[in-house]
Amino acid sequence: MADRTLVAYERADGYDIHYAPDRPDPDRLTPAAPFGGPTARSFDRLRERLAALGIDLANTDDRTPVDPVAQATGRTWEEVVTALDYQTYTWCYRLDRDYRCEQYLVCHFGLGVRGGEQRDPVGDGLLLPVASHEHEYAHGWFEGTKAAVADLLRCDVFDEGRARDYMAGRIRSFAGDRVCYPDAESEEHSEPE
Fold first, then answer.
1. Considering its fold, how many domains does the chain have in total?
2. How many CA atoms are closer than 13 Å to the CA of 110, on its beta-carbon side?
3. CB atoms within 10 A of CB 78
């Protein structure tokens, strides 16, 4: 399964939101190649198979790891986090104007297919900051934690609210001093509108 990634580029008026079908290499996202440059993926075999069916695959040589067409523009970081479909994406990259990349594992709290309630996946989770060397470990750790929580839910040890609170606590514990989003402290101390 692809590691679908939401890539948020900081601009003067907020963030531009882009889609990447796989997790792009953050080191390839630079001012000279903002969308990662030409993809290293070869489409030759696919082109041959489709040609046998009479289908001509468009030229894919200029494709980039990140889709250059923005899905949304001018969003605040808070809007990016709250509008994120936590079920669709596995990763979220936040690039500042100097192309420094913060990487987040998208932790979807939805337990619907594992015995919990069906919920809207938009805004349903936390973004866990991870370093490049933690990707595989963090992803496996979260999936294992979620599976264990789902078992506790099915056995009536946790109700849905307790299960979700437990996952949030475990994620924040894993993060340590790093800030998860949405940030509970900024939510608790924010002024009502």
1. 1
2. 16
3. 14
